[in-house]
Amino acid sequence: MQFKYICNTCGQLYNPDTHIFRCRCGGLLDIKKTNFRFSKSDIMTSEWSIFRYLKSMPFDEKFCFWKDISMGEGLSPLVMLDKDLPNLMVKMDYMMPTLSFKDRGAAVLISKAKELGIKKIIQDSSGNAGTSIAAYAGRAGIACDIYVPENTTAKKVNQIAYHGANVHLIEGSREDTAKAALEAVEEGDGFYASHVYNPFFYEGTKTFVYEIFEQLDGNMPDALIIPTGNGTLLLGAYYGLKELFTMDLIDRIPRLIAVQSENCAPIYKAFKQDKMLVDAADNIGTIAEGIAIAEPKRGKQILEAIRATGGEVILAPENKILDTRKYLAKKGFYVEPTTAATFAAFFEYNNKSDNKSNEKFIIPFCGAGLKV
Question: Low-confidence residues of the chain, pLDDT below 70?
Answer without folding.
Answer: 354-357
